[in-house]
Amino acid sequence: MAIITCRVQYLEDSDPFVCTNFPEPRRPPPYDLDENTALIEQIAGVHKLLEAPLKLEECALQMAPNGNYLDLDLSLGEQKDDVEQLYDDVG
């Protein structure tokens, strides 16, 4: 079981014209993701850690800075080509 530590934050982007939208929290906390477990099974832990105001079913995972959204039905290992930068930062 490989663990990947990521910095996580949420964006409340329901109204793109509000100028006070900014990533919360300001200092993204680290979160350990299991490389071989589907992200759908891990997103609840991220949601709880961040105390995100959105409903869990409205959440998605997006990689920064490239902006790619991850497939929650797959694990990080299954999306390794899409998250190559994440593995470069860890390795």
TrEMBL record:
Superkingdom, natural source: Eukaryota
One BP term from GO: cortical actin cytoskeleton organization
Molecular-function GO terms, alphabetical: actin filament binding
InterPro entries on file: ARM-like (IPR011989), FHOD1_GBD_N (IPR041387)
Gene Ontology cellular component terms for the protein in this record: cytoplasm; cytoskeleton
Ranges for domain FHOD1 N-terminal GTPase-binding: 5-89
First and last residue of the signal peptide: none
One Pfam family in the UniProt entry: Formin_GBD_N
Stated name of the protein: FH1/FH2 domain-containing protein 1-like
Organism in which the protein naturally occurs: Salvelinus namaycush (Lake trout)
Gene: LOC120041821
